[in-house]
Amino acid sequence: MLGELLANACEHGRLPIHVELRATGRRWQLSVRDAGSGFVHRALPFDPAAYRGRGLQIVERLGCAIYVSSGAYPNIEVTLPFGD
Fold first, then answer.
1. Spatial contact of 9 and 36, defined as CB atoms under 8 Å apart
2. Whose C-alpha in 5, 50, 58, 68 is 20 to 30 A from the C-alpha of 80?
3. pLDDT (tens digit, 9 = 90+) per residue, 24-58?
4. Nearest CA among 58, 81, 69, 72 for reference residue 6
């Protein structure tokens, strides 16, 4: 999960990239933020053969809930699917 999020930030965002992992109750939250201009998270049909555009879909398919803030300095927060 972290590898996909970092790859997205490196390819589409700008440095610096900030990573934070924190406990929230009985869950873990992973946050990846970069200095890019932001993007709109759209649900697209999953295509396992696609070379691009699969990063967030892969993270979602691993069972994570994803929140993407809009605007400059995009932040992706992922609720990890373990901890209960």
1. yes
2. 50
3. 888 889 999 988 877 666 666 667 676 666 777 78
4. 58
CB burial string 51-63: b at 16+ within 10 A, e below:
eeebbbbebeeee
Give yes or no for a contact between 29 and 21, defined as CB atoms under 8 angstroms apart. yes
Unique residue bearing structure tokens 């999020």: 5
Helix (H) or strand (E) holding 9: helix 2-12
Residue with tokens 């992706």: 76
Sign of the four-CA dihedral 41, 45, 51, 57? positive
Residues 6+ apart with CB under 8 A from 40: 70
What CATH class has 2-79? alpha beta
